[in-house]
């Protein structure tokens, strides 16, 4: 997969933690129009796992790799399945209030927050 990473964030919602089997998932967005599947498995195999989104799984090994909301222009990729994780330090945490109480997370500064506002 090639593209520029966008919106790296953690998610601790019940849906994500049940699917992953972990306390949180690192998601990294890629715009659909700048995306190219480059791995040996090619395009994922898609399944609807929630009423408003579909998930992509590697057609060779079955690993859960991506999630796409029905109305989104982004594909959200599981961050630790990427070969190149530069630019994927999480800057947000969705459903943080649902995270397990023993997990302490320090988020990275959001580079978009330090950009000056457009005139």
Question: What's the structural blueprint in terms of helices and strands?
Answer:
Elements: E1 6-11, H1 14-20, E2 25-31, E3 45-50, E4 53-57, E5 64-69, E6 74-78, E7 92-94
Parallel strand pairs: 1-7
Antiparallel strand pairs: 1-2, 2-6, 3-4, 4-5, 5-6
Structural description of this entry:
By secondary structure, the protein is mainly beta. Helices cover 6% and strands 32% of the residues. The chain contains one helix and seven strands, in the order βαββββββ. The chain has one helix spanning 14-20; strands at residues 6-11, 25-31, 45-50, 53-57, 64-69, 74-78, 92-94. The protein has a seven-stranded mixed sheet. It is globular and about 35 Å long. The termini are far apart. The model has no long low-confidence stretch (mean pLDDT 85).
Summary, kept brief:
By secondary structure, the chain is mainly beta. It has one helix and seven strands. It has one helix spanning 14-20, and strands at residues 6-11, 25-31, 45-50, 53-57, 64-69, 74-78, 92-94.
Reading side by side through the largest sheet, how are the strands ordered?
Answer: 3-4-5-6-2-1-7
Level of helix content? under 10%
Count of DSSP-assigned helices: 1
Roughly how many Å is the radius of gyration? Answer: 15 Å
3D shape = globular
Unreliable spans: none
The main sheet comes to:
7 strands, mixed
How widely separated are the two ends?
35 Å
Rounded average pLDDT: 85
Strand content: 25-35%
Counting DSSP E segments of at least 2 residues, the number of strands comes to 7
